[in-house]
Design a protein that fits this description.
The complex is a heterodimer of chains A (103) and B (372). Chain A is mainly beta and 103 residues long. Chain A has 2 helices and 8 strands. In chain A, strands 2-1-7-5-6 form a 5-stranded mixed beta sheet, covered by helices on one side. In chain A, a hairpin with a 2-residue loop joins strand 1 and strand 2. The radius of gyration of chain A is 14 Å and the shape is globular. In chain B, the strands form 5 sheets. In chain B, strands 4-5-3-13-14-15-12-16 form an 8-stranded mixed beta sheet. In chain B, strands 8-9-10 form a 3-stranded antiparallel beta sheet, with no helix packed on it. In chain B, helix 1 packs parallel to helix 10. The longest helix of chain B has 20 residues. Classes of the chains: A mainly beta (103), B alpha+beta (372). Chains A and B meet through loops of A and loops of B.
Chain lengths: 103, 372
């Protein structure tokens, strides 16, 4: 059984919702970041590195390392650990620099 | 950069060298530039002659030390003119540069996009300069110092300030007295202060410039790309703000956006109006930049001398002191040739070009306060 941080702080969150990640629904709670919601859904990597194509996800989790970059509503290079999840968010994993449109 | 190049050239000539730096390696202007090796922005004359020689030396260094160890990219420059009047002036400059040995190829408006596919559509034409190149300046300076130290003849003292200069002696705050036959002042924008320790006058003033750094992008800008107005800005002696669009990609992915020039002393504060102007001018060149993010900005202080020429050579009063500073925004490009001149002067050899135009004696009767 996983320990749930909501229990640890006796949180009583508002009702949850889903957002779209690569076309699939991911559950989230109000105030949760994209990275937290993705982790909770057992998704640990959502970006590939620019040169080696290696998988990356949240590393520092606090906005410093820029490892968790993700595409949010068509904008690449958004830090998933800082961006709050929203019900209407269109989130996609990012490949490389996220600017294939400029290639 | 100039100090690293002088140490490298002097070590190569057999001299023993101590490099004394008040800060870390590349803590000054070298760490705050773009690493341009340009002939395109120079009028025919001694600076262009120095730049052409330096370009050849940079290529040799890239062969010897590895292009990757310098991030040396012989990408060439493309200068574009927005209207026929600017194009005419640009082509007349290119004609004079060609006579001085510069490769400059006229590019008609309809051929610009073969060179730069993302260039805005409305330029009247341009000139392609295949000799323009780029290095990563921090990496290049460190690589040159590393190569110099590998000779076993070069010591490096960082976080060590020079507190006094006299014939045969350099006083420092951490190493005591260093005994030497000659002193090379390669303190860049702070070269005037170092010269003053020997009682020498060098009216160097800081000329501030900002650079914007975008998020990493696919190869978007292939050349050193800039608007023809830039050449006039470089040559201007005004203290007021000048800015013109200069963009270039880097090996790591971010695009660097410059270039502004203003004489405001050593004011390090970030000027949002200047940054906004740089961003607007860059998007006039490459409209796709409007849709990408700037992740940071930095500023540096070019070592400005009033006649836009560096001071390279023996001080007229203290011949044991050699000046090698005041290269303004061209120091990276001019570094290897400056180092070679200094090494030849120190060793008493024939110099590869006439150093008279760079003679520090031209400032003998000039006081810094008259220049500002």
């Amino acid at each position: 059984m996983r320990r749930n941080p909501l229990d640890l702080v006796r949180a009583r969150p508002e009702p949850g919702f889903e957002f779209s990640f690569d076309g699939e629904p991911v559950p989230a709670l109000p105030g949760q970041t994209l990275a937290a919601a993705l982790w909770q859904a057992d998704r640990l990597a959502w970006r590939t590195t620019r040169k080696g194509g290696r998988p990356r996800g949240a590393f520092c989790g606090m906005g410093a390392c820029f490892d968790c970059l993700i595409e949010l509503d068509g904008v690449p290079n958004v830090r998933a650990c800082l961006a709050p999840a929203r019900p209407d968010a269109q989130v996609r994993g990012q490949r490389g620099d996220g600017h294939a449109d400029l290639d | 950069m100039i100090g690293a190049a002088c140490a490298h050239a002097l070590a190569g000539s057999g001299a023993r060298v101590a490099v004394v730096d008040r800060g870390p390696v590349v803590g000054g202007t070298t760490g705050a530039g773009e690493g341009n090796l340009l002939v395109s922005d120079k009028q025919p004359g001694p600076e262009l002659e120095l730049a052409l020689a330096s370009g050849r030396l940079w290529r040799r260094l890239a062969d010897e030390l590895g292009a990757q160890a310098l991030e040396f990219e012989p990408k060439g420059g493309l200068v574009v003119a927005k209207d026929l009047q600017a194009l005419d002036a640009l082509q007349r400059l290119a004609a004079r540069q060609r006579e001085a040995g510069v490769e400059a190829v006229a590019v008609p408006a309809d051929a610009l996009h073969e060179l730069e596919p993302h260039l805005a559509p409305d330029f009247a034409g341009g000139v392609h300069y295949p000799q323009d190149a780029q290095v990563q300046p921090a990496l290049a300076a460190a690589t040159l110092l590393r190569a110099a130290r590998a000779t076993g003849r070069v010591e490096l003292f960082t976080r060590t300030a020079v507190t006094g200069l006299a014939k045969g002696r350099v006083e420092t705050d951490t190493q005591g007295t260093l005994h030497c036959a000659a002193v090379v002042n390669a303190a860049g924008t702070w070269g005037g202060e170092v010269a003053a320790l020997a009682g020498a006058a060098l009216p160097i003033l800081p000329r501030r410039g900002f650079v914007l750094v975008t998020e990493p992008l696919p190869p978007l800008v292939r050349h050193k790309l800039y608007a023809a107005d830039y050449v006039a800005d470089v040559a201007s002696g005004s203290a007021d703000l000048q800015s013109s669009g200069v963009v270039e990609g880097t090996a790591a992915g971010p695009v660097l956006i410059g270039a502004s020039r203003e004489r405001v002393g050593f004011d390090r504060s970030l000027s949002v109006p200047v940054l906004a102007r740089l961003a607007a001018q860059a998007t006039e060149l490459i409209p796709a930049l409007a849709g990408v993010r700037v992740i940071r900005a930095y500023r540096g202080f070019r070592p400005y001398l009033p006649d836009h020429l560096p001071a390279i050579g023996r001080d007229p009063e203290q011949p044991w002191l050699l000046q090698a500073c005041g290269h303004e925004g061209a120091g990276i490009g001019l570094a290897p040739a400056t180092g070679l001149l200094i090494a030849q002067l120190v060793q008493g050899e024939r110099t590869f070009m006439d150093p008279t135009p760079f003679d520090p004696a031209r400032f003998r009767d000039v006081h810094p306060e008259e220049q500002s």
